[in-house]
Amino acid sequence: MKYKNISNSLYIKGRIGWKGLKKKEYLRKGDYRIINGSNISNGKINWSDCGYITKQRYFESPEIMLQKGDILVTKDGTIGKVALVEDLVQPSTIASGLFIVRNKDTDECDTLFLYYYLQTRKFKEFIHSRTEGSVIPHLYQKDFKEFKIPDISLANQRQISSKLNYIQKKITLNNQLNDNLMEQLENEFHNLFFESFNSKSFTLSSLVIETIAGDWGKTTLQKNFDTKTTIIRGTDFQDITMGRSSNAPTRYVKKKNLINKELQQSDVVVEISGGSPTQSTGRSLLITNEIKNSFKLPILGTNFTRTFKTENLENAILLKSYLQFLYLKRLFFNYENGTTGIKNLDYKNVLNIKLPDVRTNKLFKNYIKKYILFYKFIIKLGKQNKTLESIKDAFLKLYF
Fold it and tell me: Cα–Cα distance between 47 and 49 in angstroms, integer?
């Protein structure tokens, strides 16, 4: 296949340093969003997890104000993750770990075709050729001067991108349905919470049998460890329920680390430390047999998570619901400074705050039944997405 250089057809910009912008300046809410590399997963932007900045910070960098149709590419950390800006509900910009790739010549290159091409092994090879041997791998703007795509007609580009987009739309539809189901559960719990405000109170610690720190050891070299294990991070929580569990990293661990630490049904995993405390710290994941069985390997939490073991699934759902409610409302989430400067969730304090007991509400049992039904359906759609992702990958290999 012939390739052509399209670097002159692309507008490529990144944030020039941080211009003094620090993560502590991020706002919990606001009118101007900022996207980090951690907000990008499987070709999409997780808008619900993005931070906010002030109007002044947004307008000081007009060259990286996002437009509909922009493609984002990570240039630091996990290099080469891409996402398409399909819609802009609020004015948005990017953090220093991203590039904006904007198609200036739609008669030369179809934007969707470019977006899907950036997800191929060919682009990964292009990145590797630019970062190989670097002590700290980094993709530079000048690297795109040599960027090439398959030399095929615009009509053929659109034909290929339309087929891939059909699959992607089904994945997106499933994700939207899953989000809607979770939102319904969250709203129902919200009502239960406030309707039970005058009832007797209790603490979440009464639901927890044991708290376990995630840990797989100081090193992950295969020669020192003898068991392969899937490690779940806070950034994997949404991916897992959306059927992308294969993205969770695999590590070699000591067998003794699996004793009483392997995640089981009725466990609730909480992220106690994250790069963006106002947005990610405090997220939680309910482990069910459906989730556990989607992994071929044992699963553990990282040292940035805590696992709360409960007596049964009902207690786990109750704990997860309270934690999700507190996380979304940003209530009672007191932070303490970590040794690395990243703020950690003081989860012990959260577990011991007195809260209204929703179990006194006559609708509580119905809520649990609905939660189990919805959650199973969410996992089912997630598995369907996993299959669709495999089909999309097969098409990418076929076309490129």
Answer: 5
